[in-house]
Amino acid sequence: MAEQLKIGVLGASGYTGADLVRLALRHPNMEIVALTANSHAGKPMRAVFKHFAHVDLPDLVTIDEADWGALDAVFCGLPHGTTHTITREIFASHPHVKIIDMSADFRLRDAAIYRSWYGVEHSATDIQPEAVYGLTEVYREKIRNARLIACPGCYPTAVLLALVPLAKAGLIDVSDIVIDAKSGVSGAGRGLKENTLFCESGEGLSPYAVGKHRHMPEIEQEIGVAAGVADLRINFTPHLIPMSRGELCTSYLRLAAGKTAADLRHQLIETYANEPFVTIADEDVLPQTQMVRGSNYVVVNVIPDRIPGRAIVISTLDNLVKGSAGQAVQNFNVAFGLDETTGIEQLPLFP
Amino acid sequence: MAEQLKIGVLGASGYTGADLVRLALRHPNMEIVALTANSHAGKPMRAVFKHFAHVDLPDLVTIDEADWGALDAVFCGLPHGTTHTITREIFASHPHVKIIDMSADFRLRDAAIYRSWYGVEHSATDIQPEAVYGLTEVYREKIRNARLIACPGCYPTAVLLALVPLAKAGLIDVSDIVIDAKSGVSGAGRGLKENTLFCESGEGLSPYAVGKHRHMPEIEQEIGVAAGVADLRINFTPHLIPMSRGELCTSYLRLAAGKTAADLRHQLIETYANEPFVTIADEDVLPQTQMVRGSNYVVVNVIPDRIPGRAIVISTLDNLVKGSAGQAVQNFNVAFGLDETTGIEQLPLFP
Amino acid sequence: MAEQLKIGVLGASGYTGADLVRLALRHPNMEIVALTANSHAGKPMRAVFKHFAHVDLPDLVTIDEADWGALDAVFCGLPHGTTHTITREIFASHPHVKIIDMSADFRLRDAAIYRSWYGVEHSATDIQPEAVYGLTEVYREKIRNARLIACPGCYPTAVLLALVPLAKAGLIDVSDIVIDAKSGVSGAGRGLKENTLFCESGEGLSPYAVGKHRHMPEIEQEIGVAAGVADLRINFTPHLIPMSRGELCTSYLRLAAGKTAADLRHQLIETYANEPFVTIADEDVLPQTQMVRGSNYVVVNVIPDRIPGRAIVISTLDNLVKGSAGQAVQNFNVAFGLDETTGIEQLPLFP
Amino acid sequence: MAEQLKIGVLGASGYTGADLVRLALRHPNMEIVALTANSHAGKPMRAVFKHFAHVDLPDLVTIDEADWGALDAVFCGLPHGTTHTITREIFASHPHVKIIDMSADFRLRDAAIYRSWYGVEHSATDIQPEAVYGLTEVYREKIRNARLIACPGCYPTAVLLALVPLAKAGLIDVSDIVIDAKSGVSGAGRGLKENTLFCESGEGLSPYAVGKHRHMPEIEQEIGVAAGVADLRINFTPHLIPMSRGELCTSYLRLAAGKTAADLRHQLIETYANEPFVTIADEDVLPQTQMVRGSNYVVVNVIPDRIPGRAIVISTLDNLVKGSAGQAVQNFNVAFGLDETTGIEQLPLFP
């Protein structure tokens, strides 16, 4: 019989936490033993998310009530800035617990950049060097032994899986990258905000956080690493789309001298030949969010630009799965030596 | 190692067929060996449904090209009226093959009623007596040995799971049933119709087929059987809702003398105490399609009416899963002696 | 040149208030001189509603800052329970000002019923007898001279325009009325609530307030008046639909002895022969919200039920226009002796 | 009393034609005397578009049945390639009739470019020089006396109103323009296509026609004219968004040496200071389709890019109004010497 690993979910009342619970409930090696949500502590999970009416789950507790020592892994779905302390504490006192953080708090290696984008001082800089950036396909080997895994943001996952291999191989000019990004509304979370009301975001399309989105420095950091370039600056412009799930990034790229769109596509096919979750679409197929909804898959393709010397790369994923909870489970599988696809093999739900 | 059963899907280019394929691909005891779609024969499945880009599947073939003898089970997702001949032929020549029909063709026991609602003569009346109505929770024992399983329509599944136990127990007046039904657009299929274009059905709500919907006689037949009443007539009024998946039926009922809404709820709790897929919602929880999207679950509840002597029963399901492909897999599991939940344990996708 | 009437809008930061402003800006006889919104006081209207970026409007002020004496009419878009005091004060001190209340506060004639449904004591019962129920087509003559017009709720407008003529003419059994109601999300207002977030109400369908909706007593009151029946009880069951605007009510009726669906339809055609905003649909046309979006029109039709002795009446309107701001303008036109269609002749926006 | 001008609409059964009819019905100087739709000839308009149930309109006729001599103006909403012959014939035989073409057929000045993008030979090249490109704000003076007005495509209208003044003033490098465009589904028309079914385009986002969209040469032509550059090539990448109406273009621009985003914004403010339909949004306001739905307004803003030497320009409009029927009416008003805003003053419908 397969090993049962005990897990806890910090921040189980958000969309990311809930999707982690959904996956964990059907994961053959996970047993959910703690769910925290300070504002809902004491309630059954199904009172907070009605779609869990069919299953048994532990009631929600406060962070203080959870017994970290009893766990093998902690998934953290809290907002940024709230996890430094608790993560540091668990990290220090429970060396056997693996922490898989879906928040933004340990993604940026440079504390100054963290401060300037998130507006708070990072209070756990001492354990930052222990954090592995959880872009599974890129950092798989480091994830195997990591105790603290900082899962990437949803947009960075979509962008980086497409662009990192191209930057690494020197196929593109990383100083001229324009990324027009589009996301469904769940990316904004379950908090009550006027702009995510049905009547405000339905039947309409809004750019937001133009030039200011916090996923920007993450993308710059990782493309910079891949290309060996410091202080990279990209254009990243997100738009809110009237759908719940799904994200699509259209990246407008300048090719390295002599390179073609076909070279880029070939590079991606080669890089991802044996990857279970990255699909390079057939030659004439444009990626669309409908190809990934509810699944851990990413679809990427390269389209020739009419303008010589340029190419268009399109990548898409489900922001709550591969963009968050699914990738977290994927990293869990890697970190515990399980088959990497365990529990996240669901095919996209279409229509 | 678990038994591998070879299956074919007739009509794999419709939404119902595609959702069957989605479930079959992850079912541990199914191997897909044939997919038919006359109008798309010769194409790979992923050219017809892009969300299958991630997996290998047999190419689509015509019905004539399929080798029925090689199969253990055939799922049929063709439109009504098109399956009589092929079903009869397979039934006659391949006694070991189980046929699980998701079309309407073998649901009605009375050929005259079939003719009057579907407008065509039934040409396989000789095998109709062999057909078991595939409402799993009601006909489970007969399904175990059936060779031809006629899966119910999506609306009838939602209505009958809620009302059959009440009618059987004599708790309601079956001569006064009003069912206001609401469905997402996928219920209308993938055929090109003006009223299912995004611009026509989006941001709007339309009643349709009022007094004429073909799921009506099925509901009348089965409530009639449950109550022991012939020639039952109900009111069934469907509405098209701007969402892709999901169905919700609000049934307005007159109680039998002396009965209360609480009696109805108690009856349902008792009936479904051990059923894996039927959830009676907590006392104050109103069923909503968000509780079942993408899953094989049904949620039902009974709400007291302010008008004495009446009650409101609400039931909801995903029309493509429990309302079609999921229930078909559930029946497959029963018919082949597998654990009934195999391959359809997915939790609802929310948001 | 046409007369210019000075108006104020109380509660201009809600959807109802905003739609009133939209109509008033293009009404040839209205001049907007005051907009109140306590929580947004001091802001320009276009900071609160971006779609007003194209026009000049007075900045928002608090209720206390408004000069009622300078106005000819006040439209009130505040939530129920908040308008008693201010309405009473304006009514008492500014006899020339007409008050057109879009809230629920003066719709119910019986203070005890108000208290039991709204949970607060009515503190302006003395002026309640002055209030005219603003269902224009029914109370037009009284509206001409009214100083306080209590515009009906959105659902009641849709239901009553369809059922009042039938009840008055004795064509239906008013003791057996089941109304299955469906509304777009704007009916819930702009307040921040979890269930009206895009991710919660999108791609899903939810019944709500079953047996408890506050529009129920209004409907009972007015059908009771029309039929001459006291203490009427009806079934009214609302559902939240994933669209922004629009409302459709499906009423399941028992016919008076010997009457037919055709009799009902004939009665409605006759009643509304000269009404500019009530359309009886062609014989085989089912009303749908797409027929009225963004307009002041109501569409009604009667559909025969397969069950003898019953009929189905369907009515639809835009909840923010004919269901609120549009009907308020219509009443303004009547009250000031203008052509009744002035400023609300817009045709539906489709798609 | 105002002059009444007789108009006809060619292709009244499409979304563009229908929106023209909607506006014309409330235009004080238009009388609709002919509506053509070959495939629906003989039907009443309200049988083809149910939202016209409230009004009287001439029945649909074939093109051959229409009496062009009786008209003052013809609006053409036919698909491209179908209007050459009829336009030429009307142009030749009825010199007093003004033709306002909403199709693509007379937008491109170069017949070779037309042929290469539209795949058909242009058969009315002789009257092409008479055609004025109907971008009202740019070509107003020529439109006054034009007999043939070729209204721009929806995307070109959104892009060109934003970029033409910048190109003219030499503020941007026109050789490096990337336009990421997003449109609601109505832009694809009412024809039956699988990808515009509700279930296919709902809850999802798809790029389409990447590098191949037919609005590209129009944009290149007009920016080229503005900048005085021949053979311009731009990147134009459209995406299909799950909403019915609305279009938003995000243009990524390289600034001319020494110029800033503020310079661009200032130029636009100056250019459009007295234009009734072009709104430059407040400094921190990002344009969104919700600001224009159902109206003839365009909203534009310039946002500084973090990357030095670059800027982002965002423009949005309703594709069926300012992007088609509304601009056609605006041109009609100009051509007949009416107040330019007549009949198209409607404010956006929000929510």
From TrEMBL, chains A, B, C, D:
The keyword Hydrolase does not apply. Belongs to the NAGSA dehydrogenase family. Type 1 subfamily. One of its GO terms (biological process) is L-arginine biosynthetic process. Residues 6-146 form the Semialdehyde dehydrogenase NAD-binding domain. InterPro entries: AGPR, AGPR_AS, AGPR_dimerisation_dom, AGPR_type-1, NAD(P)-bd_dom_sf, Semialdehyde_DH_NAD-bd. One of its GO terms (cellular component) is cytoplasm. The active site is at C154. It holds the Pfam family Semialdhyde_dh. It catalyses: N-acetyl-L-glutamate 5-semialdehyde + phosphate + NADP(+) = N-acetyl-L-glutamyl 5-phosphate + NADPH + H(+). It is an enzyme of class 1 (oxidoreductase). Catalyzes the NADPH-dependent reduction of N-acetyl-5-glutamyl phosphate to yield N-acetyl-L-glutamate 5-semialdehyde. This is N-acetyl-gamma-glutamyl-phosphate reductase. GO terms for molecular function: N-acetyl-gamma-glutamyl-phosphate reductase activity; NAD binding; NADP+ binding. The keyword Secreted does not apply. Its EC number is 1.2.1.38. It is found in: Cytoplasm. Its main location: cytoplasm. NCBIfam families: argC (TIGR01850). Keywords: Amino-acid biosynthesis, Arginine biosynthesis, Cytoplasm, NADP, Oxidoreductase. Pathway: Amino-acid biosynthesis; L-arginine biosynthesis; N(2)-acetyl-L-ornithine from L-glutamate: step 3/4.
